[in-house]
Design goal:
The complex is a heterodimer of chains A (484) and B (96). In chain A, 38% of the residues lie in helices and 12% in strands. In chain A, α2 runs antiparallel to α3. The longest helix of chain A is centred in the last third of the chain and has 24 residues. Chain A is globular, with a radius of gyration of 21 Å. Chain B is mostly helical. Chain B has a domain of 39 residues: Histone, subunit A. Chain B has a two-stranded antiparallel sheet with strand order 1-2. Chain B starts with 5 loop residues before the first helix and ends in a 7-residue tail after the last strand. The chains are: A alpha/beta (484), B mainly alpha (96). The interface between A and B is large, with 68 and 55 residues.
């Protein structure tokens, strides 16, 4: 085996160009890797072996005729199973959509297909992207390729694990409160959550619409940038889609970097802190300035998020009623029972908890106290970032307070699980772009588990985030890969 | 802040059209209690004069021309319906 599945998008693209490899060979190596290891890792819910092999052949034919569609033409991309793929089952890892086959492609899927990408499979996640460990999937528990007794993080755990274990070259995920960055950090891959509205949400199964954003997983920052540029752009099918230019990249030497002191306070694992501080030290001499910054309302972000998100969830999940599509109960006597029982049978524990919480926080008598108050406090969180970005170009900090935790460790205590997102949720509340870049392993000194560094920028600053990410990656050098 | 009771929970679950088992009711009542306790911190946030955010990138409503864009086959769309008859989605009677 030539191990073409271990290539980056950039390397694979070059090998295809030079004729060193074909798309069919790359797909075969990825499918081989899936066959060998996915029984253990459980990254995929659906593997599209036949479809992928056919697409790869088509890509090789196109190349022969000199009609290469893009830098990812013929390369295998995995898709989180909350993104609709035409005629391919899309379940949101929920029993309520066990047999759902979308009649249309999400905009990001159309864009990938236009670019010639090969959709290799649909990846596991927490049900409707609700969770931080991928343990809330109705179908399987994805394992962290670095240590299979641990979670890959969530909710896009399958996409993160598939990239980390070289079962695809890159993947798409969605990020509502950290669901791309958190698993990317725990699995040691790059994960990028774009500015709210930069990538169309058309065809993404809605979780919390004011926070959801589709983004990418890749092995390098450069790969993430390539893939992001393919899926980004205005879409009339998404009424929150942005029709604006991204800010131009600055010279790295002119970049001012802020370190939010609240992200290094109590609760941060000292081992994670050490890795992040070492990464900042590497960056310091290469930029204009690194200074401490305060985001004083950070301590409200958690409460704001866990009120607003469930309220939006309860509204979005109302559409699953057992009538138009999805699971429908066999036990109903009348229409009301169709609703009550179909939803009871189809939704898992976390979905139910959030539906209840969201309905409570937006019900008569409580809406002002919870939802309206949270919407106002959301302004405070956003203003913190507005102030910070008057002084600096980007912010740096940890993605997760800890490294990957054990499977089952936090499932009985939703509040502790929710706190995993403490450094990522503010970014969604403010609609900002942010990236998790692998910064090394936790040790003791050598070995340990992956730690991700978070680069946060103002809206539409993706170019600066990629610039700093690449600069850091160069000074960091190569990192070990998980030995699956 | 008020503590959530089992009655509150049943009321909300009914609003959400979600049937819960006895065990679920007990579990969620207790879990919601500790989650809502955590939310009490929100009271301390000084939000006087702040206008609530419900859309983060300051966009206005967008009007789109009412024209047919993508076309779907009726059959394809009905394929996902749990029950169908004569090209329609079939539902239980709404009235007795």
């Amino acid at each position: 085996m030539a191990n073409l599945n271990k290539l980056t998008i950039q390397q694979a693209s070059e090998q295809l160009k030079s004729g060193e490899a074909t798309s069919a060979e790359i797909i075969d190596d990825c499918l081989g890797q899936i066959k060998k290891y996915d029984k253990e890792i459980n990254a995929y819910l659906t593997v599209l072996a036949d479809v992928a092999q056919k697409s790869a052949k088509d890509a090789d034919e196109r190349r022969k005729k000199g009609r290469v569609a893009s830098a990812i033409d013929g390369l295998p991309i995995a898709i989180k199973d909350v993104i609709c793929t035409k005629n391919i089952k899309t379940t949101a890892a929920s029993e309520i959509l066990e047999d759902f086959t979308p009649p249309y492609d999400a905009t990001v899927i159309s864009k990938l297909k236009d670019a010639g990408a090969v959709i290799i499979g649909k990846t596991n996640c927490d049900e409707f992207a609700m969770g931080s460990s991928t343990e809330n999937s109705a179908y399987k528990i994805t394992k962290n390729p670095w240590d299979t007794s641990r979670v890959p993080g969530g909710s896009s755990g399958g996409s993160a694990a598939a990239v980390a274990a070289d079962m695809c070259l890159a993947a798409l995920g969605s990020d509502t409160g950290g669901s791309i960055r958190f698993p990317a950090s725990l699995c040691g891959v790059v994960g990028f959550k774009p500015t709210y509205g930069a990538v169309s949400r058309y065809g993404l199964m809605a979780m919390a619409s004011s926070l959801d954003q589709i983004g990418v997983f890749a092995k390098t920052v450069e790969d993430a940038e390539i893939l992001f540029n393919i899926i980004a752009g205005y879409d009339s099918m998404d009424s929150t889609s942005l029709n604006q230019e991204f800010s131009p990249a600055k010279n790295p030497k002119s970049l001012k970097i802020g370190i939010p002191k609240e992200y290094f306070a109590e609760g941060l694992d000292p081992k994670v802190k050490k890795v992040i501080e070492a990464a900042i030290d590497k960056i310091k001499p290469q930029v204009n300035e690194v200074m401490e910054i305060s985001l004083p309302n950070t301590n409200y972000a958690f409460e704001v998020y866990y009120v607003i998100m469930p309220v939006e969830v309860s509204s979005n999940l109302a559409r699953y009623d057992g009538i138009k599509y999805g699971h429908s109960t066999k036990e109903a006597k009348d229409l009301l029972e169709v609703y009550l029982k179909s939803r009871a049978e189809g939704f898992g524990d976390e979905a139910k908890r959030r539906i209840i919480l969201g309905n409570y926080a937006s019900s008569a008598g409580y809406i002002d106290q919870y939802y309206a108050k949270a919407q106002k406090a959301r302004v405070l969180v956003k203003k913190d970032f507005d102030e910070a970005f008057k002084k600096v170009d980007l912010l740096l900090g940890p993605v997760s307070p800890t490294t990957a935790f054990k499977i089952g460790e936090k499932t009985d205590d939703p509040l502790t699980m929710y706190l995993s997102d403490i450094y990522t949720i503010s970014i969604n509340l403010a609609g900002l772009p942010a990236m998790s870049v692998p910064a090394g392993l936790s040790g003791p000194p050598a070995g340990g588990l992956p730690v991700g560094m978070q680069i946060i920028g103002p809206a539409l600053s993706e170019n600066n985030i990629f610039t700093l990410g690449k600069l850091y990656e160069r000074s960091r050098g190569g990192l070990p890969r998980p030995s699956v | 802040m008020a503590k959530i009771t089992k009655d509150d929970l049943e009321h909300v679950a009914n609003l959400a059209r979600l049937e819960l088992s006895r065990e679920e009711k007990e579990k969620y009542t207790s879990q919601m209690g500790s989650i809502l306790e955590y939310f009490e911190k929100l009271d301390q946030a000084d939000t006087a004069g702040e206008k609530p955010i419900d859309q983060i990138n300051d966009m206005e409503n967008i009007a789109v021309a009412d024209e047919i864009g993508e076309k779907y086959e009726r059959e394809d769309l009905l394929k996902n319906a749990p029950e169908q008859e004569d090209g329609f989605i079939k539902v239980k009677a709404v009235f007795e």
